[in-house]
Specification:
CATH architecture of chain A: Up-down Bundle
Structural class of chain A: mainly alpha
Distance between the termini of chain B: 55 Å
Number of helices of chain A: 12
Radius of gyration of chain B: 24 Å
Order of helices and strands of chain B: HHHHEEHHHHEEEHEHHHEEHH
CATH topology of chain A: Formate dehydrogenase/DMSO reductase fold
Structural class of chain B: mainly alpha
Shape of chain B: globular
Largest sheet of chain A: 2 strands, antiparallel
Number of domains of chain B: 1
Number of strands of chain B: 8
Strand content of chain B: 5-15%
Helix content of chain A: over 70%
Strand order of the largest sheet of chain B: 1-2
Oligomer: heterodimer
Largest sheet of chain B: 2 strands, antiparallel
Chain lengths: ~350, ~475
Amino acid sequence: MAENGFLQAAWFLLVGVLLVGYAVLDGFDLGVGMQHLTTARTDEERRILMNSIGPIWDGNEVWLITAGGALFAAFPKVYATVFSGFYLALMLVLAGLILRAVSLEFRSKERGRAWRTTWDVAFFVGSVLPAVLFGVAIGNVMRGVPLDSQGDYAGTFGGLLSPFALAVGLLSAAMFLMQGGAWLLLKTEGALRARARRTALVGQVATLVLWVFVTIWSRAEAPALWDRFGFIPVWLAPVVVVLALVAFPVLVRRGRAAAAFATSSAAIAAMVGTLGIGLWPNLLPARDQGAPLTASLTASSDLTLTVMLIISLLGLPFVLTYTFWVYRTFWGPVRLDEHSY
Amino acid sequence: MDAEQLARIQFAITVGFHFFFPSISIGIGAIVLALETFRLRNRHGKAETYDRAAVFWTRFFALTFAVGVATGITMEFQFGTNWAQYSSFVGDIFGAPLAAEGILAFFLESTFLGLLLFGRGRISSRARWFAALMVTVGTLLSAVWILIANSWMQTPAGYEIVDGRARLTDFFAAALNPSTLPRYFHTVSAALTAGAFVVLGVSAWWVLRRRHISVARVTLPLALVIAFLGSGLMFVTGDFSGKQVAATQPAKFAGMQGLYTTTAGAPLIIWSLPKPQDPASDPQGPEIILGRMLSFLAFGNWTAPVQGLEAFPQQDWPPVMLTFLTYHNMVAIGSAMLLVMLFGLWYLSRGSVWRRRTWLRFAVLATPLPIIAIQLGWAAAEIGRQPWIVYGVMRTSSGVSRVVPPEQIAISLGLLVSLYVLLGGLWLYLARKELGHGPAPAPDGTDDELPDEAAAPRPTPRPAGA
């Protein structure tokens, strides 16, 4: 339908940037939620964890909403096929995100123990479910899915739960756990911080092991992803992943919390980047049957892509500016007060 | 039930439940901004009171906003999950406003809300006002984009159909399609009204119970004026919206009015049982009908012909009875709201509003009216659009996902409904608790003192919290 390859590549990149933004930012929110029951033990510690993301988690989640909207606008057929094909998995993601949002808002509104414990568990479940399922979805995109003649999903729900996809699900959970631990190094003190530090290191080891494992396995499961890596410069992305994952524990042990957080974020961005390089020009490879959904086949018209590019380039600098301002305002360890969760 | 019916039920429930929350948070956001402005300017030397009022309503806003955000993600996903055929057909046009809403509105409102809620002691007084401004701007911008998207489904423009997909040819024609502006202003004035009614109802309740009077004294007049202006604007913008529907969606218009036969000088039904197609079986209930008024309102001409449903093939009719009932009840409730506000404004101007206990009780009872009217109006707009998902272009039955089996929709429907029942119940419980608890007490102990008592010597002091 559309003709301009540059615009399509720009939008492929932009959707990727939005997903990186989500994985880096809401990634630490999910990682904080995943360790809510273990890293934090007392009521006060749990409040500190929730308030460490209190002012910002909502804005972080908007990266996902915007990525969804951008995929819809730029590659509508991919949005339609992925969202209808992964139906039940996405409904569980939704249920998780709903639970996460309201548990933050509701938990500290009552003093009762049962009330707070219920929402603590809801916060944990609402963080783990999306963290794992995002990875499962990515695993399926990597392997490709069966597509029918109209480009719709032709498989079953069970078909989405292949061992490889589940392994990628574990990888994404490990990655967010590391990121959440790194965030808490910036936001906590004392014994709580020592526990967050352990969690971050566990997350880092799990991420490194699972990433190497999934990468080797993808040779067999998703060989087409490797085609592009005949071109040497693109190896930069996986090299950054390895360097960042190796540097992370060193920085954590030296107490360089900000640098550790930046390194963990870089590892996540480079992982998504590596995947993007492998996928291009496909957005959804086909497996067993059907033709892949490529950027040029599914892209919106040049006019839509141009208008949207203008809106994004005008809007995103503002978004980044005030997001930066808010992060700076709340920089440093959490202090609970009467306005906290 | 088949997949289409289940998907429609799921969409109706999720959008109806979601829209409850933004429909009040838009108005409460505007009131918070007004309170923050008065606080900053130290209006009447009451900066401290405005501060307590703003903090309280910001907390209430946040509670409502959180549920709105949580249920809003469902909407962003649902076009793809349940309406995949629709999504790939319209993505070129419909996806863009959703993405723009994220970039230009959602980031703004959620980021600045965090600052507004948690920023005390970290940001200056002026920065807090700015955050309130950005939150309000964000909610109003978000309404722009979602109404552009929804209005394009009502009155598609600026597109052509190529290879079975709609393709954008003119961005401004699509964005400013014939129904965008009337529907935007109508929806926003309704949402401002809904928020104002909540603040007004709560303030009136406090006055009746002689609690938190220091705050009610500033929020009641403010909310009353906004609620009055909003209810009035709803009629003005509703009139624009009605003229647009008459001109561009004649079958929907006929369904709203229950008009089967094309009539010159058509009458306006104010109140009636739904009319059957066959005049012989008319139930003959009580009615209020204004002769020729419909022709005048729709076309500015007392004798202009209004097309009846007979002018359209029956397969293109909306469900007439539902469209008629939702539309007429919306108008009836809107009129009741305006009436309550007219009395309120009269009492306010005479300074007697604090003593008008009957009126105060009406104001409390009227709290949910705009929310109900909004739900009914939204239902009339979307049911009246049927059987089209894009009016005159694509049928709803062709928009549903091909590959999602009905069992899976039933599972998600069950999951979402149970979550929403839980959320709705908890929101009510927590909202009730917050409203009962109220804002921080007045430092000078004037929380039980109505305005006209202040000058008189104080009666025996009441125990705190009475």
